[in-house]
Amino acid sequence: MHNNGQRRSGLALLRHIWTEWISTFVILILLLLTLIIGTGEMVHGQLLRMGERLYGDPATGMQYSFLRAEPTAPDCERNPDIDAQVHAQMQANAADEFADIFGTASESDVRASILAAKQICEEKFQFHDQAIQHIQAHPSLKMYRTIETSFFGIFKFGTENRAILLVLMVVFAAISATLKTHHIGLRGPATKIDFKVYSTLMVVANGFLTSSSISQYRSVLDSGVPMSGETQVIYWMWMILFATLTLISLFQLIKPPAPTREGGSLGLAFLSVPLYAYMAISTGFSFTILMDYPMGQGIYLGQLVEFSSIFLNLALFIWAGMLLKQTRIVDLFLNILRPWNLAPETLTWLILIAAALPTAYTGASGIFVIAAGAIIYKEVWNAGGRRQFALAATAMSGSMGVVLRPCLLIVVVASLNKEVTTDMLYHYGLYVFLLTSTLFLVISLFFAENKFRIAAPRIAAPLSLRAFGPVLPYILIFVLIWLFYKYALDTNMNEFTAPVMMPVILLMMVLFDKLRHEPAPIPAMGQWDQTLDHKPTAQQITASSERSLLTAPDSPLRQYGFFKALHLSTSETVGHIGALVILMALSVSVGGYLERIEIMEAFPTDISSIFIVISLIVALMIFVGMIMDPFGAVILISATVAPVAYQYGIHPAHFWMITLIGFELGYVTPPVALNHLLARQSIGDEEVAAADAEVRHKSFYYRYERWILPMIVMLPAMLIIAYAPYAFKLFGWYE
User: Distance between CA atoms of 62 and 79, rounded to whole angstroms?
Assistant: First the structure.
């Protein structure tokens, strides 16, 4: 027993070293390299312009671009013997058998041609001599061009190998997520039977993926089509990844982790299996057994590589979200609202409006839920909100900003559909955001126990203004970096540059926090008496804040330094990249299977009523949102449903607003409800269980409020967006 315990502890140590150090270090290097690649074009352009200003000479026509490499002497003869060359050329012409047909040049013509060549050669030598003199006159030029060309080499290498960088990132991240059982599922494995079912289905799922990757590689070899080195490396990385995941899952089946809870049941155990495993098993069985197309999953993994730039940007956004967790920004912003002692519903509405911007700037709804979900949950709860209401708010915190600039999902839609542009979708997305946020306020107030509450302005206003002061440095950091990019690199922040700029901004904010040795985060205030006529005093507010500092779940003051914060944020990023990207890859595989069986052929093509067409699309979008991640769903919908919708005369912008809001409704709707799963990951299973226990004695709505509230907010929004433009010509989309 002692030896076995030593072996298990040794294995646990190896797992810790891999997940916390090896993969974290590799992913950090890859993320930084991705930042360099993303910034490279901007920086290199500026280096070229600066080189021209420093070393160019308009008077002599000498440009920096001529000096980026050491000038080479011309290979022509500078002082030739003209007469000898004329004589030799005339002899050659006379011996030419085709001279009688085409005629021969006269001696004067030959001499003129040779003299012109001599003049050109002389100009080349003069330019070479001038360049040498110019370089000798500027001793710093060699060092500058070494820096510029070295940077260009790194940037060029990264640009040419984006696909390899992405797959390498997925390999390390997915292995770490599997070792830590961090994949996204309806519930986490906890009991012995949970781990048995979990590991068994993971072996089957990863076995299918391994077999498909090998089958695809063999198919390409047998086809005789030559493979580039990059393609071959990518094939081998996929095979190594899924073979490794199969072995890890097999080991976890033979030696399962220690259960954290006794009991369990077979039905609940199946809920602990990751969503990607179900997708892999279903598509693997369908492709391999039913369709005799074993390479199907491997082929659709190529979609991930095809959009490597977008998924690398997603990885940067995830990293930005995890860096956000290491700062005090969210807490400091909430400090501005806390003195007003607002009713939970009003406070939550303001939080959701404020959360829309970071949601848009962190790429997708799920990332912000992971990054800030726990803080939002505690704030709403500490303000007096029900735990179930706080869970609902957390799940919705990432839903409203997905239609705002510069959300990455809109960029994917526009890149796959020439009928729409990002500007068009962001324009109409603003109306969608105003609609959903207003509906949330109205509906949440309808179910509120206390409709309105606010502290006395004479007490709250000074405290709120005082709390605004600590937020200013973060605003200043944002503005300064934005100005640097805008004027130093001639690049503004938009949907294409935000993935690169946001991690840089967050890194500077984390560094600022750590240089000041500030604790992060500041916990939320304690709950106050919630009667309408109660107004807390300034002393009560301060005392409440101090009590909360000691009693909040994350009360330890994190005084570690910048590099520790960087390590923690990157370590979290590794798990989320592994879980989210693998889920997206299998969503693409599911989409490919549905496309291959031509499911849209069943969609009627002779419907006379546009209302029926829209109703069918609404139902389909909600269903897709319930079972697939947003990026995989967009790829599927672009290839299948969108062309049909356009044929029926639905305006592309209208169609995609229906699609995006339908996805968001699907992400908060059982049985999968991806945003709820991510909220649970952020908050913890124990808190979710406590929320359920708190309302067991209450009515149906309050028992299931975390599920019902988001649905009854998003469903009316969906119906209004789907039908109002057509019925009332709200945006002039229909004649």
Answer: 25
